[in-house]
Amino acid sequence: MFTFISKRILEAIPTLLVLITISFFLMHAAPGSPFSSERALPAEVLANINAKYHLDEPVINQYFYYLGGLLQGDLGPSFRYKDFTINELIAQSFPVSAEIGIWSFLVALILGVGCGIIAALRQNSWIDYSVMAFANLGIVLPNFVLAPLCILFFSIYNHWLPPGGWNGGAWPYLIMPVIAMSTSYIAQIARITRGSMIETMHSNFIRTAHAKGLPKHRIIFQHALRPTMLPVISYLGPAFVGIVTGSVIVDVYFGTGGIGQHFINGALNRDYSMVMGVTILVGTLTILFNAVVDILYAVIDPKIRY
Amino acid sequence: MKISKTLIASAVLAASISALQVQAADVPAGVVLADKQELVRGGGSEPATLDPQKIEGTPGSIRSKDLFEGLYNQDGDGNQIPGVATSYDVNADNTQYTFHLRKDAKWSNGEPVTAEDFVFAFTRSVDPATASPYAWFMEIPSIVNASKIIAGEAEPSTLGVKALDDYTFQVTLERPVPYFVKMTSHQNMFPVPKKVVEKWGDDWTKPEHMVSNGAYKMDEWIVNEKMVFTRNQHYWNDAKTVINKVTYLPIESPNAELKRFQAGQMDLSYELPNDHYKQLLRDIPDEVVVTPKLGTYYYQFNTTKAPYNDVRVRKALSYAIDRDVITKYVTGVGEIPAYSFTPEVVNDFNPETPDYATWSQKERNEKAQALLEEAGFDKSNPLSFKLLYNTNENHKKIAIAIASMWKKTLGVQVTLENQEWKTYLETKKHQQFDVARAGWIGDYNEASTMLDLLTTTHGNNDGKYSNANYDKLLHDARTMQNPAENYNKAEEIAIEQDMAVAPIYQYTEKRLVKSYLGGYMPNPEDNVYVRDMYIIKH
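^ inputs. structure came back:
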């Protein structure tokens, strides 16, 4: 196991480097610059700004400056938010998205797996159909529809919840973002769990367990659940990263100040260092959680050995 | 604009003006104020910075007006009223302004606001090392040496600004510019605390370091969530300020903002979604406030490229736009059809109505058809081109409507091309377009803020329109006491004669304002101050 983990870490470094390199050059290839604005800047002023951000040097030099800073943990100054560095902006916004994300993840996991199992065990019953109807609805209903609907219902028609804001993560501010964030994940997890559970319940070892006369709850929780979870877990790894790195929709509609908005705005504003910062964050988390998934696989499935 | 005219007329030696009214929250008698005086405002997108000399764009500008105060403020009609300066003198040839600063003006750390802070701020703005995107703003009134300093040809310390003593600030101009005092309400001319900026450098705007001289001071700034200002107890007119706390919410989506407003979590919005305008007028007519804004929405022709270098083609395309249909049915938020480049709301100048504005649309269409035919385009050889706009629902709707007008009236084949903002700017800058959507909001309330845009060397003249007579009229207007005649001639040349651009409509400012919010006084430049507002008991 130890060699496996160290191998994964060693592999992560070149992967990240490739990711950084490609993103860096792609970003710099986009037309316009962080400082192109409607009103043309005086040449001398533009020259000074460019010099400050090394934009007057060849891209390859800029790349090495960036890597140099990165080695010291410095993600650079924001090209757009001139009063902040990327480290500050990520430190401010990532915890917000992570908090919404972790709650959404837990809700999605519990409800998704729960619904999936119930639907599988009552296959083709009304429970199954309603769970699957909900799942399909959850998948097709995008969160940019769900978010305003939530606000209409919870905040405008009924003054139950604040329509937006964050307030340090007080629970009334958390509910709607979690609903908007988790619904599609609940639906996906329920579908995967159901499919996997049905398959498992038809396998030979479950049939044997039935034949041995084991009680149903023991068959389900002791024997069927583990193999059922394998495909779910491989979905959860990347899903977790997606969920904790936020969503632009949630940030835009609920004004939570999470990191989701930085993805889009960073690219639109040509905030090179912001785009790099979030790319590195997402890249690192993706590699990390893929490794976690692999480890979980080994724990759950005794056939897997590293 | 009555006040400024009087000022200029009486600007003989030392024309001291001090009897002007000072605005702050003027709560009418009988109005009962709410116990909780806290305002939540929509703030548009997150501002790139709050450093007055580095701000560009409305989101930064509206916030800066609560944090800082310049020499002069504006009232609800856009007239100048004293700010940090109580009065000013001007010399005989109108090139030297001496401002007398109030002695009770203080920074939020309790230190006095001095003439030295203004000298520092003005110098900082033109110093290329500051890299102020609004450095050019100091060139417009021709402050001595501003242009040279910006171009790196002179030392920043040679700028024509001087602190005669702690409370006397003098600005020397290279030529008389009648609207100079009006420009002092702009954030680029706001003072900054010299000692604080020197101590913290670029970090001085961080919430924990920032010191300001306006009615409010920074309390909390969480990017993309909120910005909170609280009362600056040291503000000279704090006694007349009513609202204790201002929260700006950076909400880019007008729909999301509307929801906050409807749920009662916001008192004053940044804008409102056009699609909901009619319904809002039905549901909450008292809370929809639409006022004219100093800006024009127009289509730009690439005059470096055939056939757009042909005035007949430009005129035909412009005439065939039914501006009434656009403003009534497509935008529909009280916009005013534009036939001149300068909006009517501008101070001291009323553009004369060009002839084509007086024709019926049918007449315009007929003229347009004749002109296009004359230029060599007909059904067998139709004009076809790309119409460029930056990605946005409203621009798209307008483009579709106008393209169909052109098709129906002139048989022109238009391909719509949308590009995201930065790409669009780049495309326009390099003249890689045929016809492009454009818009311009004035930076100061004087016609040259619009008309300068069409001069040959202007950095934003992306259509590369060039007319020597036009350039001369505007150049001469700079030193004239009453340039209105030149402006009229300029309009006549650029629009009536050359149709350099096709004006479409004059912008409006549209906001949702809770009926319990008093003292909201929008003016054409959107110089709105929270210190003038108050919340009525509700």
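Chain B touches chain A through 49 residues (CB under 8 Å). The radius of gyration of chain B is 24 Å.
thumbs up if we can close this ticket
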